[in-house]
Amino acid sequence: MSNMNLYDTIPNNVNLSDDKKLKRALEKWLPDFQSWWMDMGPEGFQANDVYLRTAIDVDPKGWAHFDHVKMPDYRWGIFLAAQEKDRKIGFGDHMGKPVWQEVPGEYRGMLRRLIVTQADTEPASVEQQRLLGQTCPSLYDLRNLFQVNVEEGRHLWAMVYLLHGYFGRDGREEAEALLARRSGNPDKPRILGAFNEPIEDWLSFFMFTMFTDRDGKYQLLALAESGFDPLSRTTRFMLTEEAHHMFVGETGVGRVVERTAQLMKEGNDDVRKAGGVDLPLIQKYLNLWFTLSLDLFGGEVSSNAADFFASGLKGRQKEDRLDEHTALDQYYNLNVFRDGKRTMEEVPLRNALNEVLRDSYVDDCQRGVDRWNKTLEEHGINFELKLPHRSFHRHIGEFANVHFDPEGNFLSDEEWDKRKDEFLPSEEDKVFVKSLMHAVREPGKIANWIAPPKRGINGQPFEFEYVRLS
Ligand SMILES: [Fe+2]
Ligand SMILES: [Fe+2]
User: Fold this and answer.
1) What is the structure's pLDDT at 217?
2) What is the CA radius of gyration of the chain?
């Protein structure tokens, strides 16, 4: 057991009671967090008992704790992975030196920016998802939504701990600003694009947890390599929580695909009439959320990415599996679009690190899509879901301001306007998907447009009362 103080006002395994100043600062932030949660967290379910998993320790055993709790009583807090003895910086210009336990002065601004950008996504997704409880397809899904939401709340704590603990007054100001911005609000939006997009139906929620939370995984993997040890330890523990979010997304979309396949096999030529989501429509939602998530990695050529790497603040995922850790004197062959045609351009590797991370992400997404296609194949359905070409529907980087179809063929602005509803959800599509969203709240029952899960949570049956509504 690490020294877990689970029942302190602020649960933690960082001996918070020994650091009076930090403890006071966080206790001052706590009521602001709580009121943000009541205002912007899941609407309408704060008084219900939810079957939640709570971390009671950071080792794998500490992960098996499930109980019915009210969300406001969730043990939000500060949990860091154990400190690795004699850990050294594993990449960049400071490679081989001991990791930093305090903020390196020359990188203070850069580090703060990295932390704030990550931190901002956590409350944003809770805000985006706050109304979904009202249209849940089953109690099982409702519970999974709330599990994701409370853990995003905890991720906010994880990042705010770093801001309060290591950045003094400007850290405290950033922590306050994190509770003041609002997803989708034009006057005080969240920092990154995808985190201002509305999530108003469960198909979008599953796509978001599949694709956007997976961007989170890759950002956390890169930050877990950080030479700033507290950031590395914080993100390493966040990754264990993040895995569940992607499980919710991948199996959620998988169950929609499964249900659609069943409806097709039952002889429904028009899946929509049968109350399901047709495969071309699933493809459009995939196209939307995959591309919004691709943008989160940033521009293909980025001097910021080079600086983050050189300074030892943000590495590549699983840096220790690579042979070479300076990324100097190496080049990346980048796919670009110049003067109306596709061509390759050599970019110094350090400048291409956003693209390197995006490559791993795309491969990971493809593995999930393959599993969905396997379901279709098992049902004998001749249809393949596909990740669109990387140039399609991008708003950041090389392909912003130019249009392509999902195969990567160039489209004039005029063609794009004419055809975009073929590729992305149209207004009509969105209205249709929303028309399917009726809450199903009896234990063991499920909405018509999605198949039940193969198994329940923590060995419980699907019929279990995952959320007590009365
Ligand atoms: Fe998160
Ligand atoms: Fe997440």
Assistant:
1) 97
2) 23
CATH of the domain at 283: 1.10.620.20
Distance (Å, whole) CA 204 – CA 462: 23
What residue numbers bound the domain in which 129 lies?
16-468
Gap from CA of 244 to ligand 2 centroid (Å)? 8
- 3 belongs to a structural domain: no
Residues with Cβ within 8 Å of residue 21, at least 6 apart in sequence: none
Burial class (CB in 10 A: 0-12, 13-18, 19+), 330: exposed
Tell me the CA–centroid distance for residue 33 and ligand 1, in Å.
Answer: 16
Cα of 207 vs centre of ligand 2, distance in Å, is: 12
Q: Encoding tokens for residue 353? A: 């690190």
Mean pLDDT value across residues 260-273: 96
**In the structure, how many helices (H) and strands (E) does the chain have?**
12, 7
- Residues 274-304 have pLDDT tens digits of 999 999 999 999 999 999 999 999 999 999 9
- For residues 424 and 422, what is the distance between their CA atoms, to the nearest angstrom? 6
| CA of residue 437 to ligand 1 center, whole Å | 25
Task: Classify strands 467-468 and 331-338 as parallel, antiparallel or unpaired.
Answer: unpaired
Number of domains into which the chain is organized? 1
Does residue 56 lie within any of the structural domains?
yes
Asked if the structure places residue 10 within a domain, the reply is no
